[in-house]
Write a structure and sequence with these properties.
Mean pLDDT: 88
Distance between the termini: 70 Å
CATH class of the largest domain: Alpha Beta
Largest sheet: 6 strands, mixed
CATH topology of the largest domain: Rossmann fold
Number of domains: 2
Bound molecules: guanosine-5'-triphosphate, magnesium ion
Oligomer: single chain
Low-confidence stretches: none
CATH superfamily of the largest domain: P-loop containing nucleotide triphosphate hydrolases
Shape: rod-shaped
Helix content: 55-70%
Number of helices: 12
Radius of gyration: 36 Å
Order of helices and strands: HHEHEEHEHHEHEHHHHH
Strand content: 5-15%
């Protein structure tokens, strides 16, 4: 059963943000997928995300995820790596807001996230750095090292260059800084893995580091599977309290605005209020004087016809 109806999701978006709704939808999908583990990739356009996942699938004869030199992946596509492990290919970040939106939504459905970076480009650019920072902020601190994995792709194009090690060291330092802790860090080449298959070279396959990376990833998936139910419940709990906090904060902000507006109105109308108050007091005072006078007349003319007339005036 869905957590929220369509109409409620709209309301939640208005009251919090689209990001919250995506997180709710992600947790909901994960809870309904029982103990299937989902691994998603993320990274810049053309960083080699789809190629890396095709390599994990040993997709030698045909691409299971489309690959290309232009922006290729536009939505989250899923494939089975094992019967209990799905891998999900996502659009590159920093291309369009719509792509970032899809990328974020699909990542929120993932148990493990593989962040890819093309090491041919050197260290992380600002977009990649900020994205990593943003992701790490959305994962519970004690879960980050378990759920987030960093992979440098394209090592075949850089490895032989003199500055390779310094590019790797600098990238590692940036990852540490953005995430706030050490996370698994891999250096691989999907291209080399496919070439190794064509040439039938086991040595080249090993040098691509894809088999080692796959073994590591499956080990991580198996660990995740052991705690998956507990983990998802925890995530749901965290999301509930974060949503409540955001709504409470919003309510407090609105209350402050109401108080401010009320004070402004009071301030604005204070002089008019004071003037009318004085006029009213003046009238009351005058009325008192008239009443007094009439009472005097009443006692002086208690049995004349004027008595009835005065009485009527007093009762008016
Ligand atoms: N030399 C080299 N090229 C690679 C490697 N991995 C991917 N490529 C090439 O990089 C280009 C983009 O690869 P994709 O796998 O489509 O990249 P992507 O990150 O999925 O791209 P989008 O889906 O558009 O964001 C393709 O031309 C690939 O052949 C690698 O390890 N080495
Ligand atoms: Mg792709």
């Amino acid at each position: 059963m869905a957590f929220f109806k369509e109409r409620e999701l709209g309301k939640l978006t208005d009251l919090t943000s689209r990001e919250f709704v995506q997180r709710w939808q992600g947790v909901e999908k994960k809870l309904s997928s029982k103990d299937t583990i989902t691994i998603a990739n993320t990274g810049l356009v053309n960083s080699g995300k789809s190629s890396l996942f095709n390599a994990l699938l040993d997709a030698f004869d045909e691409e299971r995820f489309p690959v290309g030199a232009i922006r290729t992946t536009k939505q989250g596509d899923k494939e089975h790596l094992l019967d209990w492990v799905d891998i999900m290919d996502t659009p590159g970040i920093d291309a369009t807001d719509e792509d970032d939106d899809v990328a974020y939504r699909t990542l929120m459905e993932a148990d493990l996230i593989v962040a890819t970076h093309n090491i041919k480009m050197g260290m992380l650019n600002k977009g990649e750095y900020d994205w990593l920072l943003h992701l790490a902020e959305r994962i519970e601190k004690e879960e980050i090292a378990r759920r987030l994995i960093f992979v440098c792709t394209w090592i075949d194009e850089r490895e032989r260059q003199e500055d390779y090690q310094s590019a790797i060291d600098e990238t590692k330092r940036q990852v540490f800084e953005a995430v706030g802790m050490e996370i698994p860090f891999w250096e691989v080449s999907a291209k080399r893995y496919f070439a190794a298959h064509q040439k039938g070279s086991e040595a080249l396959a090993q040098a691509s580091k894809i088999p080692q990376f796959k073994a590591f990833l499956l080990e991580r998936a198996s660990e995740a599977r052991k705690i998956v139910v507990e983990q998802r419940k925890k995530e749901l709990h965290t999301l509930c309290s974060e949503t409540m906090q955001t709504l409470e904060l919003d309510r407090a902000k609105l209350q402050m605005e109401i108080d401010k507006k009320r004070k402004n109105i009071q301030k604005q109308y204070a002089p008019a209020y004071q003037s009318w108050k004085k006029i009213l007091e003046n009238f009351r005072y005058k009325r008192g004087l008239v009443e007094e006078k009439l009472n005097e007349l009443k006692s002086e003319n208690s049995d004349s016809s004027l008595y009835g007339f005065i009485n009527r005036i007093i009762e008016m």
